[in-house]
Amino acid sequence: MPQVTDDFSVPHHVAIVMDGNGRWAKRRFLPRLVGHRQGVEVLRQVVRWAQDRGVRVLTVFAFSSENWRRPPDEVSGLMALVVKALGRYVPEMRDHGVRIHFPGQRATLAPEVQQALHLAEADTAHNDRLVLNICFNYGGRWDVVQAAQALVARGEPITEEGLARALALAHVPDPDLLIRTGGEQRLSNFLLWQAAYAELFFSDKWWPEFDAAEFDRALLAYAQRERRFGRISEQL
């Protein structure tokens, strides 16, 4: 099993597309919502692994703008699951120094979901050990559009710097490493602006089976990359 040691560079900000919950459940002849429940448990573990390894920001894709197209019973089940999970796990996150944010559109969410998100943010607002961004009803294209609209409304010019300050994740630096589970190799409208220079790691494991060894494998792959940001090796 690969291990992360002090000899390796740990990314400050890790982003994850948590893919494969439904396929994991289907393979086991279980309802898709069972896979989503198991995915919540894995996220809880990943938060702990990230803290143990020195990651300071963790951003996960929990519910995309496009996920409304899924069967209504799955969508309603997901909404109920997030409210229940927050009620169960926010005290634990708070006690472990995790600060929670929910980047995404809230106006279209049910009032009880909006309230659960607000309470989770308020309850962890003073923590600083790890920032956990749970992107909920989020899309990368929406994020860029809403940032541009905010600048226009304030009468500010649309520049790279201005857009960056108006994005939904302006409170954290851009991700260094973006992991996608489930075997797919695409961004799926996740952090389109912020991931411009992120290192990408694609895992064949479905999210409910993602474990510490696979997380470490992603961190080690990141540590072995040369991040040039447009320069050449000799300039680094």
Features of this protein?
236 residues; alpha/beta; Undecaprenyl pyrophosphate synthetase; six-stranded parallel beta sheet
What can you tell me about this protein's structure?
The longest helix has 24 residues, at 72-95. The protein has a single domain (14-224), classed as Undecaprenyl pyrophosphate synthetase (3-Layer(aba) Sandwich). A 6-stranded parallel beta sheet has the order 3-4-2-1-5-6, sandwiched between helices. The chain is of the alpha/beta class and 236 residues long. The protein has helices spanning 21-27, 32-53, 72-95, 111-123, 140-153, 160-166, 212-223; strands spanning 13-17, 57-64, 98-101, 130-138, 177-180, 199-202. The mean pLDDT is 93.
Low-confidence stretches: none
Instruction: Spell out the helices and strands N to C.
Output: EHHEHEHEHHEEH
Beta content: 5-15%
Coarse shape: globular
Task: Count helical runs.
Answer: 7
How many β-strand stretches?
A: 6
List the helices and strands and how they pair.
Elements (H helix, E strand, L loop, with lengths): L12 E5 L3 H7 L4 H22 L3 E8 L7 H24 L2 E4 L9 H13 L6 E9 L1 H14 L6 H7 L10 E4 L18 E4 L9 H12 L13
Parallel strand pairs: 1-2, 1-5, 2-4, 3-4, 5-6
Gist?
With 236 residues, this protein is an alpha/beta fold. The protein has helices at 21-27, 32-53, 72-95, 111-123, 140-153, 160-166, 212-223, and strands spanning 13-17, 57-64, 98-101, 130-138, 177-180, 199-202.
